[in-house]
Amino acid sequence: MPPSVDSPSVPPRGHRVRQTIAQLRERILAGEWPVGGRIPTEPQLVAALGVGRNTVREAVRALQHAGVLECRQGSGTYVVSTDELAPVVARRVGDHRTAEVIEVRRAFEVEAARLAALRRTPEDLAALDGALAAREAAWHGGRVDEFVEADAALHTAVVAAAHNAMLAELYASVGTALRSSLTQAMSESLTPERYVDHSRLVAAIRAGDPEWAAREAGSFLEPTPRA
């Protein structure tokens, strides 16, 4: 006779769904199902995870609501993000709340610069020098898309030099949204009045001066006065 629902050998339904969500997340984060790729069909997931169809269905639906998966009619279910926070941030940026985006960047980047000045290693400094040089080359090349990527790479290198894993993860969550906001700010051309020198920021981190580094990072992101 099969165990009843209340039997200790059968976890409650809600627990099974949470476990299944966790298993799906693990496989996505491990790269088994990359962003842009299609996940296995429902019957295949049932067989692979050892749970019922309804449990799989609820777990997939939860990850769809979180912005990690997307169901495409007649095609299947696809991975659209490895990060549940990124779609939320992207939607906020899409609402054109420019002042809020700047405030969030300031919160992350000022503290990252301060910590980087205290914790940078020789390898970090080499990465910063390389990223700064690439940013300069991209600016002089005159291509907005290349410059946006190079600028983002430099700021990411600053965050990496802070050696704070949680800060790095959170910053990565907003990376796509920040690139989008920078692209909008640059419009279609790199004009002289839009240029912002980042060499002093790298110099401050190299000098190990946290206050100087924080000032330099903050100077790029002055908050917009509210009406």
Automatic annotation (TrEMBL):
| Organism domain of life | Bacteria
Quote the SUPFAM superfamilies the UniProt record gives.
GntR ligand-binding domain-like, Winged helix' DNA-binding domain
Q: Where is the HTH gntR-type domain?
A: 14-82
Q: Which Pfam families match?
A: FCD (PF07729), GntR (PF00392)
What molecular function does GO assign, one term? DNA binding
Enumerate the transmembrane spans: none
Which Gene3D superfamilies does the entry mention?
GntR ligand-binding domain-like, Winged helix-like DNA-binding domain superfamily/Winged helix DNA-binding domain
Q: Which UniProt keywords apply?
A: DNA-binding, Transcription, Transcription regulation
Tell me which PROSITE patterns the record gives: HTH_GNTR
The name under which this protein is listed is: FCD domain-containing protein
Q: Which organism is it from?
A: Micromonospora globbae
Taxonomic lineage of the native organism: Bacteria, Bacillati, Actinomycetota, Actinomycetes, Micromonosporales
